[in-house]
Amino acid sequence: MTDTNYDLIVIGAGPGGYVAAIRAAQLGLKTACVESRETLGGTCLNVGCIPSKALLHASELYEEAHSGTLAKFGISFKDVKMDVAAMQAEKAKAVGELTGGIEFLFKKNKVDWIKGRARFSGPNSIDVNGTSYSAKKIMIATGSSVTPLPGVEIDQQVVVDSTGALALPKVPKHLIVIGGGVIGLELGSVWRRLGAEVTVVEYLDQLLPGMDGDVRKEAAKIFKKQGFTLKLSTKVTGVVVKGGKARVSIEPAAGGATETLEADCVLVAIGRRPNTEGLDLAKAGVETNARGQIEVGHDFQTKVPGIYAVGDVTPGPMLAHKAEDEGIAAAEFCAGQVGIVNHDVIPGVVYTMPEFAGVGLTEEQAKERGDVKVGKFPMMANSRAKTNRDTDGFVKVVADAKTDRVLGVHIVASLAGTMIAQAAQAMEFGATSEDIAYTCHAHPTHAEALKEAAMAVTGKPIHI
Ligand code: FAD
Ligand code: NAI
């Protein structure tokens, strides 16, 4: 029988919660983690990062074979076919292996998995399926869910959210994506590559809010070139579903004439909101802010001593690696140690082709704080990108004009998601652009573009 008294109970087994639980157990705390899903790993492993990347990978392979990219290298096929069911099965296999892996890690580290939904019954106690559990400390890692669009009902058949869009059994003829953010562009890319016509309706005048201005402009160019129809500065005023088809009414964001688009699938991807409903936070004395998030101090403790919160349920970017790092740091605090997360250096990556990545301040944000120097280098001038025929994009380094310290790095490149790690590490070590410029980079690699962009900060790149 499960013991009901713990040092730490973590609510939610996503990247924030499961990582926190494992770290706490490693540090000697008697730990349990409550999760209501059938499998561990949260949004990320079950219906987020992992399945989306499996579909992005599969659809990229198909497009390379189908569109003639491989033919340019002399690899040709008589007939390229896409078996959506096989792709979905392979995705499910990857998800199963990874969620099963967390279950193994829980057993290995002696973390008890309490199955069911948790609600607070007091500051040191929760209730799950009628059983009461108490702990010296409780960590809230309940994550986030899709923000609904008022008046638009998600039926997961014709009108889907990201979870539905990850599980479509066939390629839609016309997919309308509401929201030109990360989910819209990643999942829009998957289905466009497989043959769908994709229209993105975005309220703002550019895609990818929060990213650097040059990156956002480049995104619009690249996605248009790939065949996306972009309706920027446009709002959706209604979606009507009839006979398996959706009629989507749109009008200019500033107001104006209404237009109606028809589609056989509509993806609503207008953001996510923190999961706090049904937790009975009031019983523990925990409050939420105006955006529904749980605010925490530097030690990830809420205003109630002994109650911690990490990940999407707290302010900051809704990213798996942010949640993980917070989980580790918070667990270390719970164990009496000091944990650190540098929230100024959290990379963000959009895993389309090319990838879009950024870390630190955008050029616009940096300019608001003082004088900056900017170095840019096009992937077109990078030898490895040339050999691989993937020359879309650029690297941009934003540095402080006086100290030369790197304030931000923004990359559009096929390998931007991998390249950004070097930039993040350099920034974590307080690097100047000169430090990057004088670091020997292997040739020929896409990463050399970062070295050249750093050289461009002081006006001396070699290859342009
Ligand atoms: P979650 O992963 O949401 O986990 C919270 C868990 O808590 C859930 O499993 C939920 O069932 C459980 N829970 C909630 N309430 C209770 C309760 N009362 N009792 C018990 N259990 C409860 N991020 C990236 O960094 N990279 C990506 O490539 C990426 N791709 C994404 C793609 C998609 C389609 C989506 C939707 C998201 C993606 N994200 C990505 C975001 C990422 O998934 C989240 O930032 C991350 O999962 C947040 O982790 P978390 O631990 O805070 O919460
Ligand atoms: P998002 O915030 O990235 O994008 C939502 C977009 O919808 C914005 O551009 C916004 O202006 C637009 N929008 C809002 N209301 C609208 C309306 N009524 N009509 C038209 N457009 C509207 O949110 P998204 O894409 O839903 O992703 C949610 C979260 O999941 C993000 O915070 C992201 O961090 C995370 N995520 C991360 C990924 C990654 O790291 N690669 C991949 C997928 C999701």
Task: Choose one word for the global shape.
Answer: globular
| Helix share bin | 25-40%
The Cα radius of gyration reads: 23 Å
Distance between the termini: 68 Å
By secondary-structure content and strand pairing, the structural class works out as: alpha/beta
Average pLDDT metric = 97
Number of domains as seen in the coordinates: 3
CATH architecture label of the largest domain: 3-Layer(bba) Sandwich
- How many strands, what sense, and barrel or not for the largest sheet? 7 strands, mixed
Provide the CATH superfamily of the largest domain: FAD/NAD(P)-binding domain
What is the fold named in CATH at topology level of the largest domain? FAD/NAD(P)-binding domain
Bound molecules: flavin-adenine dinucleotide, 1,4-dihydronicotinamide adenine dinucleotide
Proportion of beta-strand residues: 25-35%
Number of strands: 22
Description of the structure:
The chain has 464 residues and is of the alpha/beta class. It has helices at residues 15-26, 42-47, 49-66, 69-72, 84-108, 162-165, 182-193, 213-225, 281-284, 320-334, 363-369, 383-388, 416-428, 433-437, 448-457, and strands spanning 5-11, 31-35, 112-115, 118-122, 125-128, 131-140, 144-146, 159-160, 174-178, 197-201, 229-231, 234-242, 245-252, 259-263, 265-268, 272-274, 307-309, 348-350, 355-360, 372-378, 394-400, 406-413. It has 3 domains: 5-146 and 273-334, FAD/NAD(P)-binding domain (3-Layer(bba) Sandwich); 159-270, 3-Layer(bba) Sandwich (FAD/NAD(P)-binding domain), CATH 3.50.50.60; 348-456, FAD/NAD-linked reductase, C-terminal dimerisation domain (Enolase-like, domain 1, 2-Layer Sandwich). The chain contains 15 helices and 22 strands. The strands form 5 sheets. Strands 1, 2, 3, 4, 5, 6 and 17 form a 7-stranded mixed β-sheet that branches. It has a 5-stranded parallel β-sheet with strand order 8-15-9-10-11. The termini are far apart. The relative contact order is 0.12. The model has no long low-confidence stretch (mean pLDDT 97). The protein binds flavin-adenine dinucleotide and 1,4-dihydronicotinamide adenine dinucleotide. The site of 1,4-dihydronicotinamide adenine dinucleotide (NAI) has 26 residues, from helix 7, strand 12 and strand 18.
